[in-house]
Amino acid sequence: MKTIRSILHLLLCALVALSLSACVDEEQYDNSPQGNFEALWRIIDEHYCFFDYKQHEYGLDWQQVYNKYNVRIDDGMTTPQLFEVLSGMLAELRDGHVNLSTAADFGRYWAWYEDYPANLSDSLLRCYMGTRYKIASGLKYCILDDNIGYIRYESFSSGIGEGNLDEVLLYMMPCRGIIIDIRGNGGGDLTNAERLAARFCHEKTLVGYMQHKTGPGHSDFSAREPRYLEPSANVRWHKPVCVLTNRHVFSAANEFTMYMKALPLAKVVGDHTGGGAGLPFSSSLPNGWVVRFSAVPMYDAQGQSTEFGMAPHYSVALSQADFQRGKDTIIEFARKVLVE
What we know:
Helices cover 36% and strands 19% of the residues. It is built from twelve helices and 13 strands. It has helices spanning 4-26, 33-47, 51-58, 62-70, 79-91, 111-114, 122-129, 162-171, 190-197, 252-261, 320-324, 329-339, and strands at residues 99-101, 106-107, 134-136, 139-143, 148-153, 177-181, 205-210, 225-229, 241-245, 266-270, 278-284, 290-300, 314-315.
């Protein structure tokens, strides 16, 4: 029975072991186009954590990916050509946590949100927040005219302290409910996600599971370990809360959504989240390029992977008619949910 913080501590130890095995793999390959290709394919083959899941979801076959891209490798190819081939191979994983970094470029897969409507408008947010909002570290907040509290958290990379959260919640105590808007939040520090969610938790709550890689095989994992959210010892919120999401909600923001969905007074409103349920790890190729990939799979409280995101309780999209009236359809829907 472990809390999220204790599990993350164990995770760091596991990643150290993973890094040592990755270094052994890398030393076996030459610094040539073929050597770098082979090193990258093998690092992913032995350490990536979603092969079984993605084979089931869309038929991913990593050996076929090898065959497809190996024929494109030529020892006379240029550095940009090699980067293009290796980035294309990684894109077959359809994982926003998988990146290839060089001094000149950054290989990425962003189709998890690029192919979907934004369901977020800065001009509409200004209609609600104006210039009167308060700022507490990474949080922007105000009270809307129907006595609903509104908190905007744009990135979990922006820190929040316990004192910040105490002040924000005390300010909103007269409110009937709170909206937490994390649309466009691409993630960041899981500690911030846990710290915020704990303010809406009133008993130790199972929020999900995680596993660790135990060997090079695609199915070599430890047993699933439960993850619990503990109630904060500071000011907590005991009234309804709505979390606003869109496709750009990813990684730590996806995890925050998962935590909140496990709490009885919380509802998620908006679009399906973008996912990103694997904790990332980095390794190096013989030429010094750095590859980041999902190494530790995470699951929700029902044991389902959230790698491809989570559905909201209420699926709502911005409408053109509301936009022309200066209204954010998703915020307006959440306001109605909170006063029902």
